[in-house]
Amino acid sequence: MTLPIIVAAAAVITYFAYRLLYGTDTPYIKGLPEVPGLPLFGSLFELETKHAKVARGWVQKYGPVFQVRMGNRRIVFVNTFDSVRHFWITNQSALISRPKLHTFHTVVSSSQGFTIGTSPWDESCKNRRKAAATALNRPAVQSYMPLIDLESTVSINELLSDSKGGEIDLDPRAYWQRYALNTSLTLNYGYRIDGDKDDELLKEITDVERGVSNFRSTSNNWQDYVPLLRLWSKQSNEAATFRKRRDVYMDRLLNGLKERIEKGMDKPCITGNIIKDPGAKLNEAELKSIGLTMVSAGLDTVPANLIMGLAYLASPAGRPIQERAHAAITAAYPDAANPAWHACLHEEKIPYVTALYKEILRYWSVIPICLPRVSIKPIEWQGVTVPAGTTFYMNAYAADYDSSHFSDPEKFDPERYLNSDLSVSGTPHYAYGAGSRMCVGSHLANRELFTAFVRLISAFEFTPPKDRRDEPVLDCLEANAIPTSLTMEPKAFKIGFKPRDRGALVRWISESEERTKELR
Ligand code: HEM
Which GO molecular-function terms appear in the entry (predicted)? Predict the structure, then answer.
């Protein structure tokens, strides 16, 4: 071989080796601080299992916005309240798409399509988002309050009986998973799980959706960032197994609705309305995508907030807040003929309870790294142009704990939403994301949280567990049993549910049961 050929071959090998070890899907962004990373893996090892916490720590050195190499993907992390506002709200028309990730988009989602929250922006996504947003807007949500009446009553009644009047400490998780799931199932398919909290279908859906959510996570799947790992990754097989199990119940839910429509036995619901509307612009795949979104979106998020809130209120630190909330509820509704139990279905007029659930949403920011975005236009940031096609991760945890926006952010303090600028300013927190692809279920979720807390606090005094081993972990990140999951999975715990006034509670329950018997 002649020397020029050897030199050329070496240059080609060096080029490809460099591309393999340091290349990224999008080019280096000139002027934006970059966290240095290892060959091939970039910063994956350093980010470890706690991406939100590690990235928050990097702010000291690299500033609020920086670029990170994660395997072969270049990601812009945005970490403070104001910088998130700049990208997600001020530039919302540019930051409107979502990236595709190998495990979720290729392996998990090949049969039922993508949820709305995982779809890149196109005409179909726009139509699906519009359909969901219309079905979940404020007036629509108000019309669903009878469902929330029914589901909260069922769960509280079961807590009352299972706790034997406060004698037995309980893990509240399954009761509130069913609350969130049944509300979404009834809205979307006109169908609810009528079993108890140990129902098989409830268990199968919560188990599979939790698994799928982990495959959706931006921190769980290194094969999304390092293509070489796909060659021998076991995760693809596991993801495919979850997909098959998911297909079984998703098809069962849709086919069940179609059968009820044929027999004229269906109840009004989102999917039914679309199937029956001859002018509907959505095809079968889009229908399935809406179904998937409705089943999965509120299933981990609503219960995680509810049960972490309960855990805190039962703790010694939360006790005064629990009593303050109870006093606020009885002060707002002093008349026994119009108790808060019923009034909370029609109006949200207990500011302390509203402030309480906002603080819960902020404090536990249950999607610590928000669903990822891709920009479709360039965005300017402090003299740097971040080009279209860049992937962005909002560090919602860091932004919600940003001390330049929230005084004493590590303190759980609902008062911050009552007496400060926060009580009037636009975005109270980033638990629901922000801007053009913000959560479309936030009105529903807020109403679910408000109703559940008003009723639970009216019904019970929450007490610490008798056995110290059942005590909850309260710290926002430490409380998460699966640190790499997309949505926080609270570590198991138990607390006591001691009825405040058993007679009144039994009366409220039977009044709600009477009112909602048609919905069962
Ligand atoms: C406390 C409960 C909930 C929390 C914390 C939550 C949080 C979020 C977050 C962080 C996003 C991403 C937003 C962004 O990129 O800016 C999102 C998207 C979404 N959420 Fe929720 N969510 C909750 C409940 C629900 C419920 C109950 C539904 C509907 C039944 C729902 C439907 C959606 C949909 C459809 C999207 C995708 C929006 C899009 O990509 O255009 N969410 N949610």
Answer: heme binding; iron ion binding; monooxygenase activity; oxidoreductase activity, acting on paired donors, with incorporation or reduction of molecular oxygen
Task: Summarize pLDDT for 351-362 with one digit per residue, the tens.
Answer: 999 999 999 999
CA distance 486 to 484: 7
Q: Which domains does the chain have, with CATH numbers?
A: 3-519 (1.10.630.10)
The neighbour count for residue 442, using CB atoms within 10 Å, is 15
- Assess whether the C-beta atom of 95 lies below 6 angstroms from ligand 1: no
Q: Are 214 and 220 in contact (CB under 8 A)?
A: yes
- Cα–Cα distance, 304 to 313 (Å, whole number): 14
User: Measured from the CB, is residue 360 less than 6 Å from ligand 1?
Assistant: no
452 Cβ closer than 6 Å to some ligand 1 atom: no
Whether 412 contacts 403, CB under 8 Å: no
Question: Is 344 labelled as part of a ligand binding site?
Answer: no
Cα 305 to middle of ligand 1, angstroms: 13
CA of 439 to the centre of ligand 1 (A): 3
Q: Is 364 in the pocket of ligand 1 (CB under 6 A)?
A: no
> pTM of this prediction?
0.95
In degrees and rounded to multiples of 5, residue 397 shows phi and psi of: -60, -50
- List of residues 6+ apart from 3 with CB closer than 8 A: none
217 and 83 in contact (C-beta within 8 Å)?
no
Over the stretch 211-252, which tens digit does the pLDDT of each residue have?
Answer: 888 888 888 888 889 888 888 777 677 888 888 999 999 999
Residue whose CA is at the smallest distance from ligand 1 atom 40: 117
Query: CA-to-CA distance for 155 and 149, rounded, in angstroms?
Result: 10
The atom of ligand 1 lying closest to the CA of 437 is 41
Task: Label each residue of 221-251 as H, E or C.
Answer: CHHHCCHHHHHCCCHHHHHHHHHHHHHHHHH
Each residue's pLDDT tens digit, 331-340: 999 999 999 9
Compute, in degrees rounded to 10, the torsion defined by CA atoms 219, 225, 226, 231.
80
> Would you say the CB of residue 294 lies under 6 angstroms from ligand 1?
yes
Least Cα distance to 71 among 15, 13, 23, 14 occurs for 23
Q: Ligand 1 centre from 428 Cα, in Å?
A: 16
Q: Where are the alpha helices (DSSP H) in 298-339?
A: 301-314, 319-332
